[in-house]
Amino acid sequence: MATDPTPEPPSADELVEIFKRAADTVPVRTEAMIAGGVARGRARRRRRRIALTGAALALALATAGGLLVNELRTPPVTTSRALDLTAQSSPTVTAPADKSVNLLLIGLDSRKDLAGNDLPAPFVRDQLHAGSSAAGGYNTDTLLLLHIPADGGRVSGVSIPRDDYVQTYGVDGTSGTGDAKGPMDRIAGAYGIAMATAQAELTGHGLSAGQLEQQSREAGRVATLATVQNLLGVRIDHFAEVDLASFYDIVEAIGPVQVCLNHAVSDPSVQGQGSGAHLEAGINALGPAQALAFVRQRHGLPAGDLDRIRRQQAFLASLRSTLANAGVFADLGKLQSLLAAVHDDVVIDDRWSVLDFLRQVPNLTGGDVSYSTLPSEGIETVRGMEVSMVDPVAAKAFVQARFAAPQTAAGTGTGTGTGSPDTGGGGGGGGGGDAAGLAGRAGATPQAGSLACVD
Fold first, then answer.
1. What is the total count of domains within the chain?
2. Does the N-terminal or the C-terminal CB of the chain have fewer CB atoms within 10 Å?
């Protein structure tokens, strides 16, 4: 199995020692001018009080650090065995030749919690602007594959459009692995198709509602991982699943995230339709509700879902600056709020710990990321739905080329080489295109300082 290629950060024990050393540096000072015995007595008492305060602060910091590190080591976070259940031996899937890591970010369009309970209706309606819990189902509206090189070079991210028409995979009823072919469908539907199949098979076997939800969703994860692996021909080493509520909670914990828009947008949410986005042209500082609306809007945009993908890429690039500038990892309160959000809503594979996940955050959101979008062969109507046609051979070649060597600003689809969104269009309706096409469009991305402006 591939190992994380990032420079080794402090270990958990070293983090505790850092807290202790920080506490030991608390200065013990008295007044510079002390006159007379009473003043000297007061000074001695003051020194004792300050020393005791320093010791108490040291103990508090060390204890807080230890508790936090212990929480990072063994947190009550939801983990998944889906990678173990996903067939790794498919001849179409290759492991990295070096110790690079492939990581899949899954954005689930669900209005339920991890136990299958409906989220509170006012929260779904007024904050998520997502209609009701009955809407959305279990579509994976965001699929972003990140390749993290072993040498610490530029991270490459490939977004997979939700409407790509692909061969889906599901859980084999005999082996339990993800090598059973499902129907040809939108890639966003692989999760929900496998989940519904699993629910039908498991119902009546004495499972509680929560157990039924959890096991069915695990089948959805296996299907998504297997579908992406077989489509792109690369092995997935880690994954993280985020839904609408967890996205909201994470942004709320971190603080406002800045984005830049080429034009003002208004996409009211009416009866579950529309994202609820109301944003001005130029730079906007987004709280959790409008951040979610920003990354979800696709109606009223020139390129529809492709513009939504570029927004998601731009948001990730901006998130890195917010994490750095807000000092999240140096602020125990903010870090604990972020951990709480991760604990409550995010699902990661069981080969990862939250500490590993947080170590990778600079890679996941870093400025040195080249984004591109999987190219399409055009839009067609299949079974009454518009889909984006994909050539599996071309898709594999596209990803292999992106992940094979260090990327430069030209030909990556970033436009800036600093984590900006893909600006390319590509063949048909795909948004990816060849390297030359992307490079030719690179200069067209407006900038607002370090922010790339998007539609």
1. 2
2. N
Query: What token pair was written down for 393?
Result: 């051979």
Q: Could you tell me if 411 and 273 lie in one domain?
A: yes
Sign of CA dihedral 199, 203, 209, 212: negative
Domain that holds residue 151: 78-454
Provide the CA 195 distance to its chain's centre, in angstroms.
22
Do 206 and 249 share a domain, yes or no?
yes
Round to whole Å and give the CA distance between 278 and 389. Answer: 32
pLDDT in tens, 315-328: 988 887 787 677 77
Q: Kindly state whether residue 337 falls inside one of the protein's structural domains.
A: yes
Q: Considering the entire predicted model, what is its pTM? A: 0.76
The average pLDDT across 199-203 equals 93
- Alpha carbon distance 177, 69 (integer Å): 34
Report how far apart, in Å, the C-alpha atoms of 336 and of each of 188, 321, 348, 361, 365 are.
Answer: 32, 19, 18, 15, 19
- What lies within 8 Å, CB to CB, of 277 at 6+ separation is 265, 266, 267, 290, 293, 294, 296, 297
CATH number, domain containing residue 205: 3.40.630.190
What are the CA-CA distances from residue 381 to residues 94, 134, 280, 282, 427 (Å)?
32, 26, 35, 36, 17
Rounded-to-integer distance, Cα 420 and Cα 316, Å: 9
Instruction: Please indicate, yes or no, whether residues 176 and 40 belong to a single structural domain of this protein.
Output: no
pLDDT of residue 431: 41
Residue 5 lies in a domain: no
Determine the length of the chain: 455
Last residue of a domain, one of 26, 58, 73: 73
433 pLDDT exceeds 90?
no
pLDDT exceeds 60 at position 40 = no
Supply φ then ψ for residue 196, to 5 degrees. -65, -40
Q: What are phi and psi of 170, to 5 degrees?
A: -135, -175
CA nearest neighbour of 452 among 312, 277, 259, 290: 259
